[in-house]
Write a structure and sequence with these properties.
259 residues; alpha/beta; Rossmann fold; 3 domains; 5-stranded mixed beta sheet; 4-stranded parallel beta sheet; globular
């Protein structure tokens, strides 16, 4: 999978440096096909590889309990930037930066942004290295460009599924957002959290498109759910138990408001 940098040399060096003997490899669904190859690299570095087959939805979804249960002394977490302040099991994060060009997709996105002058930029960790290139392309096209940075995430302009604070910090100052990346999940979250028109520049499919119709569909579904919930007399407040998702105090606050 040449579209991403798996930092194979760093992987070997970290295992040797830490003296790891049993390594748990955790990958998001789109990168799992690389697991056998990465396992062989771990083995050659002198450690026993274990690949987590569970779904992985982000750096908040760290396989800590699995690693402890299996006696792993190192987690190698692929595809996300560090999010948790502390890890119970030593963890290295390999972001799997994309190595493909974004130029063509951004060029096509510019055609969809002719009516907007002030543009906000956002992307996932796979493409944060392209922010400067994208900014230059937009400026050459006569746009005013903003990149948000609240300090909560690792990189300016970065968004993750549960945190769009960088984008929200500039939402009032831009007319629309350009999202660089594949898929619709993060672009949809960006549009819903900022309530701004959002154009997707997809470098994998080399195309650009507006995501407004899907935003409207989700908004209608949400309002329908709210109206249905108004009929309920009993509510359950659910708390996720994953390391980066457990928010018991917030759940208790919601319970108090419901009462």
């Amino acid at each position: 999978m040449k579209m991403f940098d798996f930092e194979e040399e760093r992987l070997k060096q970290e295992i040797v440096k830490l003296g790891a003997k049993r390594v748990l490899i955790q990958l998001p669904e789109g990168l799992k096909s690389e697991a056998p190859r990465l396992a062989k690299i771990v083995e050659k570095a002198g450690a026993f590889p274990i690949v987590s087959a569970d779904p992985c939805y982000g750096a908040c979804d760290l396989a800590t309990s699995e690693a402890e249960s299996l006696g792993a002394d190192l987690i190698v977490h692929y595809g996300h930037a560090k999010l948790l302040k502390y890890e119970k099991v030593p963890t290295i994060y390999i972001e799997a930066r994309a190595t493909i060009s974004v130029t063509e997709a951004i060029g096509k996105a510019l055609l969809l942004m002719e009516n907007w002058h002030k543009i906000g930029l956002a992307t996932t960790v796979q493409h944060v290295q392209t922010i400067d290139e994208a900014k230059e392309m937009l400026i050459r096209a006569g746009k005013t460009v903003m990149v948000g940075d609240t300090g909560r995430l690792n990189y300016p302009g970065q968004v993750v599924g549960c945190d769009y604070s960088n984008a929200k910090s500039i939402a009032e100052d831009v007319e629309a957002f350009l999202f660089i990346g594949g898929g619709r999940f993060h672009a949809l979250g960006l549009a819903l959290s900022t309530l701004k028109p959002t154009v997707v520049a997809d470098p994998y499919e080399k195309r650009a498109y507006l995501i407004d119709e899907e935003v409207q569909k989700v908004q209608k579904q949400r309002w329908a759910s709210i109206q249905e919930a108004q009929k309920a007399k009993t509510f359950a407040v659910l708390v996720g138990l994953k390391p980066g998702q457990k928010r018991l105090e917030e759940a208790l606050t919601i319970r108090d408001k419901l009462e």
